Amino acid sequence: MTINNLAKQQGTAIPDDGNCDEVKEALKGLSPNAGADKALCIETVSVRQGRSIPSAKKAKLAEILAFPQWCWDNAYGDLWKMMDRRLACRWSTKGVKIVDSKGKEHGHSTFDRFDLISAHSTAPQFSHQQALMPSEVDIPNNKITVAGGFSCVGWCSYGDQDYPLQTLDTNDLVEGSRVFYTTVKNQGEVGTIDTRLDMVFGAPGVLTLVVPVHGSQVRCDNAVPGMNSVGCVNALFPPTFQYSKSGPYSELAKHIELAQESGIPGAPGGVPLHRLVNPKLQVKNRNQSCPDRFNRPPGNSCDEYPMATTYEGGWTKGDLTVTESSPMPSWPWTKRTFPMCATPGVTWPLYNGIPEPDGLSACMINETHNSQGGNALNNELYRPQRIINMDPFFIEIVP
Fold first, then answer.
1. In angstroms, rounded to a whole number, what is the distance separating the alpha carbons of residues 207 and 33?
2. Which end of the chain has fewer beta carbons closer than 10 Å to its terminal beta carbon, N or C?
3. Radius of gyration for the alpha carbons in the chain, expressed in angstroms and rounded
4. Cβ–Cβ < 8 Å for 314, 288
5. How far apart are CA 114 and CA 395, in angstroms?
6. From residue 26, how far is each of 7, 82, 99, 138 by CA, in Å?
7. Does an H or E element contain 95, and which?
8. Which helix (H) or strand (E) holds 359?
9. Is the dihedral of CA 157, 160, 166, 171 positive or negative?
């Protein structure tokens, strides 16, 4: 019998985190014939982020869970952190105790909990893995066990699950995992999936405790233009694409840098751009930013920023609700160019040094840099990162 169910029958509830104060109160309220006077509870152990974990234990963890160094450095706590579109992680330190209705403790164990959700951008599946690393076990004449069961809601179905009953032991790790599949299939479909892991803590003669662990949401789709395949990502993570000023698209990079410095969004740490997939709206954006009347010098072409493939483009003006039949949004959208750009085709006003976020920039640049840089955006960001309509992303300019 679980303390969760018994408490519910008595008209109270154990919160999801199974915290010890609430469990003790629930025990006090149980009727004498409830079946037990001891229960398991959870407490969060306050330790500094990035605390030292013995290297031998780290190595042992690596054998069952590929926990990246980024997650060690950035994902301590109860909140999921997304390293990229494919991986979300977190780790925290917890204590599980055996307590009675008088608040007396009858044993405890402290462990680090590691969770990893790995999405497959080129396959219709993802997985949730968990590992527990006990650092202290003090349970006289008893033991604490844990097992897990995974579930999902949304566009999902189940693959293999492996989270058997295991004992918390400082000489071993607890591990569990499940593979999930998406039911997204047809072209144009997009579906989200929320997962849950019910961790079941038990001990002989003690009321069992169920602790639900909610996973980071995953999105699966068959909606990336130019592709007819299903994949899954952490869609809440806005990726960053880099252009280098010393790379193969240097003139494109230099124009974007000038445009961002003039206040136009898209740089990391600021307001993101949002992908636009409607081809007719993309044409309207290009025609507004780089009209045909601009003279294209030989070997050059007109580059617009924000790109025509974003809602921040020159015609859509950041309006995520605009359609083909809509009038052009009426608010001002400042046009600008720069001395390196007006050679001589672009006739927009030269940037006056006053940053203005609402607007566009146009620049005549090397046509190869322009076309191949656009192809790189599609082939190295939009497709592999599954950037679909309205998805946010950043453009970073590096040396």
1. 13
2. C
3. 27
4. yes
5. 32
6. 6, 36, 11, 24
7. strand 87-100
8. strand 359-366
9. negative
pLDDT score recorded for residue 2: 84
**First-to-last CA distance in the chain?**
62
Do 98 and 133 meet the contact criterion of CB atoms below 8 Å apart?
Answer: no
- DSSP annotation of 102 reads T
Instruction: Extract the tokens encoding 245.
Output: 């000023």
User: Does the global pTM surpass 0.85?
Assistant: yes
Closest residue by Cα to residue 207 from 98, 44, 94: 98
pLDDT by residue (tens digit) across 214-254?
A: 999 999 999 999 999 999 999 999 999 999 999 999 999 99
Residue at 264: amino acid letter: I
CA distances from 265 to 30, 109, 242, 303 (A): 58, 49, 15, 16
Neighbouring residues of 143: CB distance < 8 A, sequence distance ≥ 6? 167, 168, 203, 204
Q: What is the pLDDT of residues 152-190, one digit of tens each?
A: 999 999 999 999 999 999 999 999 999 999 999 999 999
By residue count, the chain amounts to 399
Rounded Cα distance between 113 and 90, Å, is 8
Q: Which long-range contacts (CB under 8 A, 24 or more apart) does 247-253 make?
A: 248/369, 248/372, 248/373, 249/369, 249/370, 249/372, 249/373, 249/376, 250/369, 251/303, 251/365, 251/366, 251/369, 251/370, 252/303, 252/365, 252/369, 252/370, 252/373, 253/373, 253/397
